[in-house]
Structure formats: structure tokens, C-alpha cells
Write the C-alpha cells for this entry.
Amino acid sequence: MSRLARGLALGAVGAVVFAAACDQGPSGPGALTATVVSPHGPEGAAVVSVTGETLGAVSAAGATQVFTSRNGAETRILLVNLTPGELRFRLEVPDLGAPTPPAVVLHVAGGDNVPRPIVSAYSVRFSR
């Protein structure tokens, strides 16, 4: 085998090993941290809808208080900050390696407790 062929073969093996080591992160049951992404900065409260048949418990993250209501596959989550700030919660899921569940921000109140008239620019970011 020539030096060039040997070098290419070693490079290909190295690339495969490197790709296998760079997986998508943890798998199995665990908690995702969800953050409401606001175009206005610190917020006072929000209602988020998360959809998924196998969603687990919802809990507070940081200073945010959390209240939930389930109806079938939909979980509605009320997030309240006593002092305006980042709205966050934790969500138990059966597989951290699976795609994150669909989440929609339904309502938002600013730090002054006045409802935001338009919430289409808000989103929910999940992290593992």
C-alpha cells in the first residue's frame, strides 16, 4: 500500500472515530430546561403550551414560579416572576436524545403586569 493510500485510509478511520464520538448529547430520561425567549427583555409572566404524549413533571427553574394544567397531550404552563426576569422551567422527558417537544407561547405579561398585545415574536428554547 502506498503512503498516500495509507494516509487516506488512516484519515478516513480517524474521521469515522471522531464522528462517532461527537454524538447529539445525552440520551435516556432526564430534564430539559426551557427558557421563554423575549424580544422585550425581562418579563413578568407567560403561558406556554407544550405538546407531547410522554411529557413528565414540570418544575420551577430559577426564580420563576410554575403552575400547570394538562389536557390530553397538551400541558399548559403558567410562569410567574415576582420580579421581572427570565422565565424558565424544567420539563421531564423520557429521552433527552429525542427531538424537543413543540412549545408555543400563548400569553405574556411584561414586568409591569400589562399583557403584551402580540406574542408572535416569542419562542421557547430548550437546553439539555
